Structures are given as C-alpha cells and as structure tokens.
Write the structure tokens for this entry.
Amino acid sequence: MSEPVALKLTAKDFKSDQEVRWCPGCGDYAILAAVQQFMPELNIPRENIVFVSGIGCSSRFPYYMNTYGMHSIHGRAPAIATGLSVSRPDLSVWVVTGDGDALSIGGNHLIHALRRNVNLKILLFNNRIYGLTKGQYSPTSEVGKITKSTPVGSADAPFNPISLALGAEATFVGRTIDSDRKHLQSVLRAAAEHEGSAFVEIYQNCNIFNDGAFDQLKDPGIRDDHLIRLEHGQPITFGKDGQFCVVHPPGGFGLEVRETANTPAEEIVVHDAGVADPAYAFALSRLPGFDLRNTPIGVFRSVARPSYDSVVQAQVAEAKASVTETPEQQLAGLLGSGDTWTIVG
Amino acid sequence: MTKQIRQLDRVVIRFAGDSGDGMQLTGDRFTSETAQLGNDISTLPNFPAEIRAPAGTLPGVSSFQVHFADYDILTPGDAPNVLVAMNPAALKANLTDLPRGADIIVNTDEFTKRNLAKVGYASSPLDDDTLDGYAVHPVALTSMTIGALAELDVSKKDAERAKNMFALGLLSWMYSRPYESTLRFLERKFAKRPELVAANVAAFKAGWNFGETTEDFSVRYEVKPAKMPAGTYRNITGNAALSLGIVAAGVRSGLPVFLGAYPITPASDILHELSKHKRLGVTTMQAEDEIAAIGAALGASYGGALGVTTTSGPGVALKSETISLAVALELPLLIVDVQRAGPSTGMPTKTEQADLNIALFGRHGEAPVAVIAPKSPSDCFYAALEAARIALTYRTPVILLSDNYVANGSEPWLLPDVESLPDLRVEFASAPNGEDGTTFLPYLRDPQTLARPWAIPGTPGLEHRIGGLEKADKTGDISYDPANHDFMVRTRAARIETIPVPDVEVEDPDGDARVLVLGWGSTYGPIGAACRALRQRGLPVAQAHLRHLAPMPANLGAVLRSYDRVVIPEMNLGQLAHVIRARYLVDAIGYNQVRGLPFTAAELETMLEEVLKNV
C-alpha cells in the first residue's frame, strides 16, 4: 500500500454554509470550532466522514459540518449510525448527542452500540440540562435540581455517563471539557485512532439554563485542585502543586484521593488505560462527587476488541470467498433449492 | 389382501396432536410428498404461541391442514375429510370442524382416563356416541411404534417420539404418496444420529405396512396430478417466498441488502432465512429493539444499501417515528409487517388484517408511504420485489402487509427465470446538479418520479446534510417558511399518489355480474373459491383484488361504480371498506371476521348468496 496522500485540508474546509444558531455564549461553539480544527488531522476526505445526531441543541451539530450528515430523531442516532457503519466500513462515522438524547430517550441504543463495539465515535455533550425544550432537568442533573418541571427539586438520582459506558462494555471511554481546546482535541485524537466504539463525554456549558455547571473545572484559580488529568503511564497526581494523588487502598474496592506528601511513591496509582478489567476505570469514574472535586479527564479506558463492523464484514467476506457463480446464477440456485418437481408441458 | 383403489379429485387432511408431537413436521413431509406427485396444494398450520403448553391440554393442540387436488385450488380447505388425532385434546379441539362422514384416525394409546379427564371427557368418545356418523379408525399408534422399534438401539422415549412417522407412513399409504423424499429428509435431519434415522424410517415403514395389512383400511385413495403450467416447482411458505424476494431484489438492484430486525412472531422466520444469504450480499442484524432495527436499516439505506426491516403489528407501532423520518429524508426503506391478531400482544400465532389503518395512516404529520399486500404464499416473492422496486425508484418507505395466514401457509410455486425478474438497478447521484455546475441540491426532484437524488456518503463534492426538520425545496436547507412547508407536504403526498401502479383486474368470466367482491391481501384464496362455487351454481359474481393499497390503482373508482353492489370481506372491522367509502363515495358493504382464522370459502359463499338475492 502506498502512503496516503496528504489532503492539506483546513478547519475552514469543514465549515458548512449554514448559519450557526446556538445561543450566544453556548459551549457548543467551542466544541464545534475544536472539532473543525481537529478534522484535517484525520487526513480523511470530507466525503468519507459522516456526522449523525439525534435531537437536542447538540444534535444541530451536523448542519454546521461540511461533511455528510444526518440530523435524525430523538435518541436514535447510535442505531442509525450502526446501520451506516456496518454497511459502509469505508466511512468515518461520528455520533453527536447530548445527555437527554443519549442517556434518557436513547439509552438503549447507546448501551447496545457500546456493547457491540460498533466503529462509531460518540461525542456526548453533557450540560446536565434539557436546553432545546427550555430547561427541564436531565438524567445527569443533580438530585434536587430546581427546574421548570421540578419546582421543588428533582427526585431522581443521575447517571454517571462514564460509569454507564463502562458498564455497557465500552472499549474506549474518555472525558473532556468544552473550554479546553487542546485537551478536547487530544481526546478526539485518541478516540479517532480507536477501532470500535469510542465514547467521549464532553462537559459543556449551557449558559442559558444551567450556567456555570462546570465552573470549578474552568476557573483558573481552583480548577487544578479539582481536575485529575489522566495520562497513560503516569502516576496520578493532581492539584496546583501535585499535592494530591490517587491510591488503591488495600482491602478496598475502589480508588481514593490522598495527600501526596504523606503517600509513599510506590502506592500512587500509575494510570493504565489498557487495564483489561473495567473495574479500574470504573473506580476512576467514581472519584468525583457532585461538587466536581477529583474529576478525572482524559482517556479512562482504551482496550482492543474486534469491532462489530469488522466481525460482520468478515462473515460476509468469508461467505463470498468461495463463490464462483454470478449473483444471478446463485439466485437461480437458491430459488430452486429444496424439494422441487418438474411438470412437463 | 388386495385393496380397493378409489379416485378422488381433492382431499383435506388435518394432522392434530400435542405441541410436542411433531405435527408441523408431519404435515410438512406429507405436503412435500404430495407436491412430488404433482397435485395442487394449499396448507394451513395452526399452533399455539406457547412453545410447550401443558401436555395433553386443549391450549397445547397443534395442527397442520393440507388440501390437495387434481385441479388448481385456492385455499387450504374449509373442513377436513380426514382428521389424525394423536390424543383426546386433538380430537376434542378439532371435532367441530369435521363434517359427518369424515375419517378420524385416533391414537388409542393416548385415550387414558387421565388424558380424557384433562379435556373434560367423562367417558371415552371412542366408546360412547360422540363419534357416531364418523368413520373412526382406532390405531394403537404409540405401542405399535414402540413395538416396531423393539429390535433397534433406541431409548423408549426416542421410540415413542417416532410415532408421528408411523402416522405419516399410514397416511402416505392411504393416499398413495411417494415417500422417497421423506426418507432422504430423515437422513439429512438426523445425519449426526444414525440410530434416529433408522428408528424414524422403521416407524414410517411400520405405518405404511400397517395400512397395507390391516383390514380396518379397506380402501386406498389416489388423487391424480393437477394440470399445472409446465416448469419446475417447489412448495413454499409466504415467509420463505418473501425472504427470497428480498434476496432477489438485492441481486436485481445490484445493491447490498441490509436487514435490521428484532425477533417477533410471526416474522422471525424472515430474519432466520435472510441470515443464511451472506454469500449474496445480505447482511442481517438482530437489533436491540424494533426502533433500532428500523434505524439501522435506514442508516444502511442512507449509505446506499437496500434497507429492510421485518416485524409484526406491535413492532410497526414502535417503528412509526422512524418511518416518518424516512418520509422526510426521502430514502428507500422496506418495512415488512407480517400481521397477527391484535391489539397489543393479541394472538401472536393467529392471523388478522387489522394493520391496514396503521400502514396507511399510523404516523404523525402528513407522512404518506406506499403500501402493498401479497395475496398468497408464493405471491410474497413478487410482492417483495414490487415493494423494493417502488422503494428504490421513488425513494420512499414502502410497507409490505403480509399476514400469518400467507406467511405460514404454503403452496406450489412455479420457479421464475431470474432474467425475467424486474431490473431494479438505480443510479446514485455522482455530480452537482445545480445550475451553476458546482452546487448540489439534495431536494431537486426528478420531474417524472418526483424522487430526489440518492447521494451516498463517499461521493466527493456532494457533501450535504439531511434531517427531520422541514427542508427548503431543492436546497434541503432548514426552512420554517409557511409556503415552503405547504409545498413540501403536498409534494410528499403527490409523489406517493402519482406512483404508477397496475390497474386492478376484475374476474367476471361471463361479464354479467352485478355484485363485485373486493378484497386485499390474504383473503384472495377464500374469496376466489367462494366466487367460483357461486359461478358453478350459475350465480354471477365479480372478484377484484387489491395488491396496491397506496397508491390505489387509477381505474379502481370506475370499476367500483360499475357494479350495483360492492362487498368487502376483511379480517378486521372494515378498514379497507372505510377507505373505499371515503375515497370513492361507494356504498360498500363490509363482511368482517376477526377470529384469528382465515375465512372459509363456504361462509363467504353463503354471505354472497344473500347479497345476490337482494340486488
């Protein structure tokens, strides 16, 4: 095989002619710009890239990408993208969804896409609120959330999207933040390189209905004491001066945060996204509480497992390998199979 | 001893037993032997939804009816001439369908006190007057089978299970059926367990020999081959024919077929069958639910495949929102609904035609689709090809309304020449279609078909976005313009309404009928048989049958208005009649039945005779 030709695309090539209609100040703008700037890196011709979305603010995303795209129906993007990806392995298929779209109405399709390991890059914009329907609580809103539909506070407990994806057998799970373009693109890069489903949760600010939901992770004054930047092969320490670290206490099931100064270096967990047992990544996903302290970002898990697409395509290829007849000849043989009889005229 | 041989022109046999007795297999084999002989055939399986209902009970009875004749027949027969009853439950459940004088072969071994009590027989019907007027043949089927296999190395349980082959052997002898295909079948079926091949073959032969030697069966019957067009035939069920039609549509269009399906009775057999044809480019996906199944199929269509989803009524309800999306996206999509008795779970293994309304109207917004219904098991093949043709040519979802009766019933099928099947090749868009030579307009329509270009991902220069939001004419950009929406809604309606479909044909041999019977889908057989019977009695009646329910044939209004009376028999409460009355202002009379069973020709004949009297 020859070296792929450099396409020399730029962010501009990925901007469609449609006017972007998110609210001014929406976190989606930053994500769109980051994705458009990242896309040329893939060196994939625009016509071989497809963005499929469901319904919600984030799901308007495909209209703004100068690639192929489908804005489908609420929650069903992973199912539609599965059919596309399985039947067209030559395409790079991306799903853009939100916390309501992916985790509420479309929860079933999300978990099954992840379980199958369909070759989809799934970007979940999590703003912990329903934006397009004007401000009801979402399946990632905190308990007690006061919204239009819950005037005295919501009664239901939220999902942790990372935990959910891991429970659904996801082979790639990452998290990033709308405002940190460099980090966002680093996670997209890892996701794009992954064969199979790549699930990326992107914390996204809805400045109209849930403004400041992730401020602790963005405020330069405090963010370093909240964020755990996961880096493969590196000991997990964080804080402005690296004063915190993550350990696996003996006898416990999960991970805990300690002060680095009081912890022997060999007890600090070294991050390994390739750990086969999802329990490790799950434990990472349980570190933060709803105050966003100890929030890991980066790649939680990245393990190899054949994609659903490749297994299905291999079955078809194997079945076709032994064929010597034309499709018409095969069809004639198939129609005439089983017990037949002939009537002579 | 020499047996008398009597010629018959037609026979209806019903095999009935417990769900675990292998009655479906027995009926299938008898049908296959009969096909080999060249009779015309029609079959009707009838089984419970429970895989193994409690043994020996009425709900556990499974039956298979086969009608064969020396002329062309249209139905599996109203009433059996022969009932094979493997236990008291099978006798009790089927006796009311049997006319006096019919032959009843009973397995006496199962007529124990306990089994009789299970179905509420106070005394054995073999000993009291229950069966007076029937020709009863008591046969100790189980014990004779076990006896015949005594020398073989099989367990008592396996020997007992072979009793259906004893029954098949006996019936095959009675009706002079060639049995070579059954012996070959048994060798294939039990290839890995030669002792079972030996046991089943021995049981079959024991049944055959019993018929030849016992004095209880003094007459043997023959039914001569039917005069059928020359060619090669196979016996085929509707679900099998429909599956092959989908495979053929893939071959004739040159497109890969992608089936997204969720298991549901009575459509699952299509998923099973299509999953075997990867060699021919068919990919199947068992999805997580009905919605994902159609979503994946639509995704595949978007990518340039022939997207198909198969289901039954409850699944159609779940798919409704995605069908509307496909209407808005204007992409080809084939939705197969093998109808069953509803509402809700209803009676999953029983037939009904009550999904016509949901097919025609069951979507939000103005969301018209094409609707087609096959009229017989083998017609499912051609109906699938026709549905695919419309979907591909006019870029629209098409609903194919099969039902449990045609899906599981079978009939001989004259194999078509592959080259004679319709050419379904399509052209994908490959270049900009705007006047400036560089712009691509995804909603610029073909003036003839009103179809928009099918521009599949991977085509350079045609990158575009589509979605469920209303689109501006030509550009496909999001549009909330009132005039544009009005235009697009009307255009979507027009593009279905103007699909050219063949005129409806009227069967009225003498041309003097004043009453027209209009049907659709699987009622073709019983209606046709009733009309024939009336004509043979000198009562003129015309028959027309709709294959295309949306759009309807252009000549239908004129046809309807040319008769004094229009009668519409349906296995629902008048769904087609409602449409016909609204659309054509014709005072059609409905005749409706929702018992989960097909019409009998006799009931339709009686009903039509009354109508004819009053014209």
About this structure: Residues 100 and 133 of chain B are 5 Å apart (CA to CA). The mean pLDDT of chain B is 96. Chain B has four domains: 4-223, 234-420, 427-500, 506-613. Residues 194-213 of chain B form the longest helix (20 residues).
